[in-house]
Every structure is written in C-alpha cells, then in structure tokens.
Amino acid sequence: MSGKIVIATGNKGKINDFKAVFTDYEVVGIKEMLSDFEVEETADTFGGNAILKAEAASEALGLPVISDDSGLSVNALEGAPGVYSARYSGVNATDESNNAKLLEALEGVTERSAHFTCVIALSVPGEETRTYTGVLEGEILTEPFGTYGFGYDPLFRTSEGIYLGMINSGEKGKISHRSKALKELMKDKEVFEKLTSN
Ligand SMILES: O=c1[nH]c(=O)c2ncn([C@@H]3O[C@H](COP(=O)(O)OP(=O)(O)OP(=O)(O)O)[C@@H](O)[C@H]3O)c2[nH]1
Ligand SMILES: [Mg+2]
C-alpha cells in the first residue's frame, strides 16, 4: 500500500468500484472517519454536487478528498433521473424501488438509449477544487440481468453489448463512467500525488 485515498461518499457500491481501480492504495469511505458526515445535494448538476461533497469533507478533515456525483440519464425521459438518480423513487428510495420505477416509466418504449455520467471532484485544502468527468453510453433493458454492481447496473447494457449486472467490479473498472473519470484524475499527476500523500 502506498497512501490513503479518502472518498466523500456513503455509497458502498461506489467504494467497491473505487477499490477495483485504486488497487495500490488504501481506499477509505468518509463514514469510517466521520460517521455522521452528510451533505445536502442542492446543486442541479453532477459537477455542482460533487464539489459540495468534496469541499465539505476536505474542510472537515483538513485533508485532500475526492467525491463522486453520478447518475443515469435516459433520452426517452428527457435526461431523467439524472442528478436525482439516487432519489428517483422518493426520499426512502432503494436500488430496487428505483429500478422498478424506471422499468415502469419505460414500459412500451422502444427507444431506450441512456448514459451514465460520473463527475469526480478533488478538493485540496487551500486550492481550487477540480473536477473530472466520465460517460458510459448504452441502453436500458426490459428486465434485470445479473446481480453484480449496484444502482441501475442490472438494467444497463453498454453500447458494446456488456451487461453491467453480469460483470464484477474489476471488469466494471475497465469500462465504467467512474473509471473513466478516475483515469482523467490520475493524468493530473501533481494533484493526484497530493491526494495520495496521506
Ligand atoms: O447502476 C449504476 N451504476 C453506477 O455505476 C452508478 N453510479 C451512480 N449510479 C446511480 O446514481 C446515484 C448516484 O447518486 P449520488 O451521486 O448522489 O450518490 P449516492 O447518494 O448514492 O452516494 P453519495 O456519494 O452521494 O454519498 C446512485 O445512487 C445510483 O442510483 C449508478 N447506478
Ligand atoms: Mg448522494
């Protein structure tokens, strides 16, 4: 292990995805350090919410932190659920209730193209926050396939024909919106070193 990466997320599925990409680092979710960490996601863009989460965490800890704001945009639904992906079926939404609502919204719809977006924000105390974006194109299936992943993964097939519910986090880490954003972050070598120097 060479350094620790702190991620301002409470989503265990995201943490698994990060671990699959950052195999050489110790990946730590913010709740392990601040058990009551909570940020209201009041922005209307992925980038805006990612910045809110990263800055709140790095301020609280006095350390460099990354965050992830992500979601699914369906063309036939004019980009919904988008930034509301986690809360699509209401305040007490679960992955299951969100998937059920999505299938219902697309009942009888044949044009099912969609994409995932992931914006990673990196906040270093005293510096301007930077963001990195990754997108994964595909379509929404008419029924769930597989049990891997989290969120809408079982309902998503990529444009290359890969079912996200049927691949493990290592395989997902080669192709996902999240890993694309992380690759952009790693290209920013100077700031990436600050993140991993804990
Ligand atoms: O099938 C999926 N595969 C993915 O790879 C993926 N990435 C995001 N999502 C969906 O979008 C929401 C993010 O919302 P979100 O960024 O606010 O995160 P969250 O509230 O779950 O955790 P936090 O990071 O805010 O603590 C998530 O809950 C999921 O519904 C995904 N679904
Ligand atoms: Mg959230």
Question: What global shape is seen?
Answer: globular
N- and C-termini, Cα separation: 12 Å
Give me the count of strands. Answer: 6
Order of helices and strands: EHEHHEHEEEHHH
Largest sheet: 4 strands, antiparallel
EC number: 3.6.1.66
Binding site for substrate: 9-14, 70, 150-153, 172, 177-178
Active site: 69 (proton acceptor)
Binding site for Mg(2+): 40, 69
Topology record:
Elements: E1 4-7, H1 12-21, E2 26-29, H2 30-33, H3 46-61, E3 65-74, H4 95-105, E4 113-123, E5 130-140, E6 156-158, H5 169-175, H6 177-187, H7 189-195
Parallel strand pairs: 1-2
Antiparallel strand pairs: 3-4, 4-5, 5-6
Helix pairs in contact: 1-5, 5-6
Which key phrases capture this entry?
single chain; 198 residues; alpha+beta; Maf protein; binds ligand CZF; binds magnesium ion
